[in-house]
Structure formats: C-alpha cells, structure tokens
Amino acid sequence: MEIVLGIESSCDETAAALVSGERLILAQRIASQDEAHRPYGGVVPEIAARAHVERLTPLIEEVMAEAGLTLADVDAIAATAGPGLIGGVMVGLVTAKALAMAAEKPLIAINHLEGHALSPRLADASLDYPYLLLLVSGGHCQLLVVEGVGHYRRLATTIDDALGEAFDKSAKILGLGYPGGPALEILAGEGDASAVRLPRPLLGSAEPHFSFAGLKSAVMRAKAAQSPSTSSGRSFDKLRMSGTLTNPAHAELVEAHAPYTDADIAASFQQAAIDCVIDRTTRALASAGQVTALVVAGGVAANLAVRSALEELATQSGLRFVAPPLPLCTDNAAMIAWAGIERLRLGQSDPLDFAPRPRWPLDEAAEPVRGAGVKA
Ligand code: KG4
Ligand code: ZN
C-alpha cells in the first residue's frame, strides 16, 4: 500500500503527517500558532510565514521518526499549494519540492479545500462519490457536489463572511479571544438560544447561497444593548466610546438594558447560524441530483451543534450523514496526505516548478455570485 507524506502550512497551523493507503495515519504533528497571533486578534501573515519556516522541518523529522520510516519508504510528497496566505503556502510547497527532488519522489500539489473535501473519505472507507458537501471553515462557506477527485460542482457560496469567520467575529465581540469559534460553542452551551432575537440572512431565498455579515452586526448590537449587570465581558460603554454605537436606534437599545447574558447571545447566534445552514443545505439538496450522503468538513464541522442539526436533516432526507472525527475537521496534514493518495492512485503528480496559487477555487467554472464581496 502507498504511503504519502503530507504538509500543511496555508494559514496558522504548521502540520506534517504520514498516511497509508489503508487509511491509517501512521504519524502526525500539528503546531498551532494561536499564541503568536492572539495579541493581534487574527492571523498576521508575516508572523505565520516565519513560524512555518521555524517549525516545519522539525515536524517532518518527528513524524518520520515516529513512524520509523525514511523518505525512501514514501511514495509521494503532497503539500498544500493554495489557497491561503502566500508566504505560508510557499514555505510548505518549497519544502515539499526540496524533499521530492532529494528523494526522487513525485510531488503532488494539493488544493487545501480539496484536502477538506476528501477528508471524510479518509475517515470513512464506505463514502462513495457523488456526495453533497458543506465545506465550512474560517475562509470558506460552500455547498459542493463532490463528483470525484478534482470534480467539484459548486452549488452555493457566501456573499460576505464565511461561517467560521462569523463565529470568530461574534466571539471577538463577546470578548472570547482568538480564534473564538470553539470558545463560542462552549459558551453557547450555557445560554438560552431564544433569549436574543437575531436575523437569519437569506433564509428561504431561491438559491442556496449564504450570508453572515448581517448576523454578526446584529450580535454586535445585541452586545451593545446588554444590561451591564449581565455582561461578563466588554461593557457597552466601551462600544459607545469606540464609536460603534452611532445609530440612535442602537443607542435606544442600550438604554433598554436587556437582561440577557453573553451565553444567551452566543446561544442565539449559534442557533441563527444553524438555522441558516439547515435552510441553505435543504435548498441545495433539492438541486444536487442523486447523492450518496450529506457530508460536512472544515473547521466549523467540529461544532457539535452544527453536526447534530445536519445529521437530523440527513435522516429526514433519507441520506447517510458523514462527518470526519473532530481532529480531522480543523486544518491538519493528514487530509493533505490523503488527497495525495487519492491523486497518486489516479496516476497524477505535479512538476517541481508548480507555482503556489493563493486563490484557487475548487470549481473553476463557477460564476461569481451577485453581491459577493459586499461586507457589512
Ligand atoms: O478549516 P480550518 O481549521 O481553517 C481554515 O481553513 O479556515 O477552520 C477554522 C475555523 C475558524 O473560524 C474556527 O473558529 C472554526 O473553524 N471552528 C469552529 C469550531 N472549531 C473550529 N467554529 C465553531 N465551533 C467550533 N467548535
Ligand atoms: Zn482549512
């Protein structure tokens, strides 16, 4: 069986993994840079690129040692070649090229989104094409029919924020730090999802696209309108002083001193987001054609409330539901190695001068969506 070394460095996780054709993760390492970026409230590309340079080679040495293998035992080297932050992508891709050249092994340039899209097949041998995939991460929010390796039909995308981005921004408003998605999920578990009325953008609209910018703005207003006695984070005065509260209607809300907690806001946000996801996915299922399963992947697929709502939708639709185990949802190198195995099996590899692609859509034929890029 083939063995592929996978490398991931497109955002703020430096990762290396060895995966075999039997779907075994022989060894893997993920070095998170959360600490380095936390003071800035988001990923700083230069800091990320430098951290990848420092960490990647030792991580690769560690996974090789743990698996007891040398490069001679590996059948190919797969690295994320985009989309992502160009500096980080270059670090991983150049490293992979150097190893491929030195060991005389094929290089496989992987689209990071393909890594996410095929990750459910690493975890589940019985998942066959075509499947409807909800790909939800920090940078992407799409519904795609995965017809085969390299064959993706995009049915929907977001016209503004990605779902993970909406979680992170809402978490930031609630003072939960960065990256806030996982912290928001935990806080939501303690709150009342009906406590704060929030909008559900695009609910019921004909095409299955997403929009989350308006929901995030509503979270900001809800936080500003919260009674100081129930707030556990930043006070509304701070928001007022920072100039966030310029609209008189919002100022009125502040006067109302609504008695909900941060946990209530978190729970209400999460429920609104889930309602949108379920409505949009239901719409996509209607136009997807015959599919074998409803599948979710990407960082937000680690959210248990999102997973269980999708599972219920799959059951109602008479479909299997497949979601990768939690560590395979957020960025990792095992999914890149697995995508490499799928491509290797089709006899595919890439030249050593393959250029990194900071922008690289999965469905290159998909039309831009009207209104896309307009952020609230
Ligand atoms: O796939 P990923 O690791 O990186 C990208 O390719 O973007 O996704 C990261 C995103 C972040 O926005 C993070 O907050 C979100 O996934 N995320 C979550 C959870 N775990 C990660 N969002 C909500 N609930 C979670 N449990
Ligand atoms: Zn990702």
Question: Can I get a quick summary?
Answer:
With 376 residues, this protein is an alpha/beta fold. The protein has helices spanning 34-37, 45-67, 86-103, 112-123, 163-173, 181-188, 213-224, 236-241, 248-256, 262-287, 304-316, 326-329, 334-345, and strands at 3-8, 13-20, 25-32, 76-82, 107-111, 131-136, 141-148, 151-156, 293-297, 320-322.
Topology:
Layout: E1 3-8, E2 13-20, E3 25-32, H1 34-37, H2 45-67, E4 76-82, H3 86-103, E5 107-111, H4 112-123, E6 131-136, E7 141-148, E8 151-156, H5 163-173, H6 181-188, H7 213-224, H8 236-241, H9 248-256, H10 262-287, E9 293-297, H11 304-316, E10 320-322, H12 326-329, H13 334-345
Parallel strand pairs: 1-4, 4-5, 6-9, 9-10
Antiparallel strand pairs: 1-2, 2-3, 6-7, 7-8
Helix pairs in contact: 2-3, 4-13, 5-7, 5-10, 6-10, 7-10, 10-11
The protein binds 5'-O-[(R)-(carboxyoxy)(hydroxy)phosphoryl]adenosine and zinc ion.
Write up this protein.
The chain starts with a strand and ends in a 31-residue tail after the last helix. It has 13 helices and 10 strands. The strands form 2 sheets. Strands 3-2-1-4-5 form a 5-stranded mixed sheet, sandwiched between helices. A 5-stranded mixed sheet has the order 8-7-6-9-10, sandwiched between helices. It folds into 2 domains: 3-126 and 326-375, ATPase, nucleotide binding domain (Nucleotidyltransferase, domain 5); 131-322, ATPase, nucleotide binding domain (Nucleotidyltransferase, domain 5), CATH 3.30.420. With 376 residues, the protein is an alpha/beta fold. Residues 233-241 have low confidence and may be disordered. The protein is globular and about 65 Å long. Bound molecules: 5'-O-[(R)-(carboxyoxy)(hydroxy)phosphoryl]adenosine (KG4) and zinc ion (ZN).
